[in-house]
Amino acid sequence: MVMKEIRVLHPITRLIIGGAQENTMLTADLMNKDVVGDGRYQVSIVSGPQTGPEGSLIEEVRARGIPLTIMPELLREVSPANDLKALLKLAQMMRDGRYHIVHTHSSKAGVLGRLAAKIARVPVIVHTVHGWSFHEQMSPRKLRFYVALEKIGDWCGHEAIVVAAKDREKGAAQGIKSAANYPLIRSGIELDRFGHPQIPPAVMRQQLGIPANAPVVGSVTRLSAQKAPLDMAAAFAHIAQARPDAWFVIVGDGPLRPDVEHALQATGVAAQTVLTGLRRDVPELIAVFDVFVLSSLWEGLPRVLPQAMASGLPIVCTLADGSAEAIVEGENGFLSPKGQPAHLAAHVIRLLQDGELRRRMGENGRLRAPEFGAEKMVADIEALYRRLLLARGG
Q1: Within a domain: residue 1?
Q2: CA 273, CA 271: separation in Å to the nearest integer?
Q3: Of 11, 35, 2, nearest to 381 (Cα)?
Q4: Whole-model pTM?
Q5: How far apart are CA 371 and CA 325, in angstroms?
Q6: Residue 161 shares a structural domain with residue 297
Q7: Cα gap 186→325, rounded to integer Å
Q8: Number of domains the chain is built from
């Protein structure tokens, strides 16, 4: 490699607490800390200003020392005036910064960022698909619109990473590019934070008001339509009928929280359900669970599943794209059809009734978790950067 210093810019629409955002933050952080790349990388992030009920990573990004620019015009919603301003500002920023690589994340920043990088003649343009902007719940007209935007973004870029193999098939099915042309780099987590809680589970149980011997079914999720939290609430009600001693925990927040609270009240399980809201002590909270559950309708690769695996938990989740890649049916968890809370609940009940099955599945998950480590993810991304730079004479 001729270049001594490689400048990389990661545009992303918003730094909420979520998988794509944590992926971006960890990639920048580990490259800047010379975990890979022999000190060659200077990595920055540019984000829109929006956060939301999911919480914000802006302060954590800054605390890690990652150079961060907040661009007011880079908004999640389609806005022709702001989108044009963001496009022009991004292109100018890329020219002024003389970036060697632009690596975009999220659908909106993925399109604007790749187009801006092409205008700015950035040598290497990469995008990570953290789940597509389109999905089967959309109307045909809306789906065609988002597929067209994805095609524009792909035309501008040099490589598109997927975090889940299923997304290769979905991209190919919509004619964006053939499945063979998407490198798979799984979204990584800081594994050493999970399975080693800083607070003993018994103490955390006391803090949450959960009886010492009660079985706990829990989730870390956004209370939004994508995650189908009302299906989870319905599953809790089914589980409580079979195991009245069970308690339930949902870590996270979102626009559907009032609906979830109402559903829990209506089904009579509110008194034994803890809604923690936004928390950053997720490793300590997960350590309280006996079974991890996720009810999503669509996903890229939900980072909470490797987190649960690293914590030694058996998992019950829906067949939602990337979720099915983290779970090996019958080995480290069970997969359930989307939108069927009773089916989800039946698997959880089986695990609650069989302690040996819980233990075996949890241990299988712990052994599989290193496949999803942050350092492996960043090493794979750095290898991709190096290949692309060499191919373009860098």
Answers
A1: no
A2: 6
A3: 35
A4: 0.80
A5: 11
A6: no
A7: 10
A8: 2
